[in-house]
Amino acid sequence: MSERKDWELYEIFVRARGGLDHKHVGSVHAAGAEMALEHARDLYTRRLEGVSIWVVRSADIVASDPTDSDPFFEPARDKIYRHPTFYNIPDEVETL
Amino acid sequence: MIAEPRALAADKTALFEYVLRLADTSLVLAQRLGAWVGHAPAIEEDLGLANTALDLLGQARLLLAYAGEIEGAGRNEDVLAFLREEGEFRNIALAEQPNGDFADTIVRQFLIDAYQVELYDRLQGSVDTQLAAIAAKAVKETRYHLRYSRGWVVRLGDGTSESHARMQGAIDRLWKYTAELVTADELDSRLHAAGVAPDHEAVVTAWRTRAREAFSEATLDMPAGASYAWFGKQGRHTESLGQLLAEMQYLYRGHPGAAW
């Protein structure tokens, strides 16, 4: 018999319908990934919100540090040439 | 509206009784589970149990409405749910057993879920098209209920020494109520012969296998036999049902015909 640890936090991602991305919708506590799936199903898909669920241990997510914002994101600020806004779009192209 | 041809059209009483067994088991269990709302060990479980309760209530409504049609005496689902006396209820007595601790609730739930999965799965092939349709809807919900309760059986059975002991205690306490679950009575056999109900023996064998496998995975002991003479499905209940009904029926009886 194995002693189990306390419940962990899981982040929940739900795909609303085929073809769309999984979107982060919130988090649940659970004693394992399978249980997290069930909790996610019970909490976040009660009103037909999804067709697929991903659960990820919150502890397994590596996030950027807010204090690193400057070195991480600031350098992109003055590089407007990276946006594809310097092209002339022919009038005939309607849905670009 | 009852479409013909339907087996047992001539034996409405038997069909009525049989449908009540299914309906009342779901109704009473839903009422029990509803009492967990606000009290479950975690908010996630609170919602999980409530979801299951609502599924069961939905099944009960369909079945009670159908029972009312069969009876043809003008009783609708509300009248059947709220104005019958204890002795007129046909749920298996396991469903009415008190919530106890979480282990009691989970064991009760697992034993009934495993039974309903096997029953509804086969009931989809009933010659009674209405019952077959209700079973087809119910079996999907019930498969999830079973996944949920079985998960907890294994988790708690093979958990800490405390959770293991509580689970084993719950099994040992509740096991006697499975006697009526594994025993086909005259009504079960008659409805099977008419093609309405599935082969009871097949349901029981599959149910037993599910229980054995889950308990084994959970390092829990499955008691050998169960003999208990009080069959809820024949209207002989434990004292718990009266208390449950008093609470469930109080509003309707206090305010007949009340609507939201």
List keywords for this structure.
heterodimer; A: 96 residues; alpha+beta; Ubiquitin-like (UB roll); 3-stranded antiparallel beta sheet; 2 helices; flat; B: 260 residues; mainly alpha; Ferritin; 11 helices; 0% strand; globular; disordered N terminus
* Number of β-strand runs of chain B: 0
Listing every helix as H and every strand as E from the N terminus to the C terminus, the arrangement of chain A reads EEHEH
CATH topology of chain A: Ubiquitin-like (UB roll)
Helix-strand makeup class of chain A:
alpha+beta
Cα-to-Cα separation, first versus last residue of chain A:
61 Å
Question: Quick one: how many beta strands of chain A?
Answer: 3
Main sheet strand line-up of chain A? 2-1-3
So what's the overall shape of chain B? globular
Proportion of helical residues of chain A: 10-25%
The biggest sheet of chain B, with number of strands, parallel, antiparallel or mixed sense and barrel status, is:
none
Number of domains of chain A: 1
Low-confidence stretches of chain A: none
Q: What is the number of domains of chain B? A: 1
- Compute the CA-based radius of gyration of chain B: 18 Å
Oligomer: heterodimer
CATH topology of chain B: Ferritin
- SSE pattern of chain B: HHHHHHHHHHH
The helix content of chain B, as a percent range, equals 55-70%
Number of helices of chain A: 2
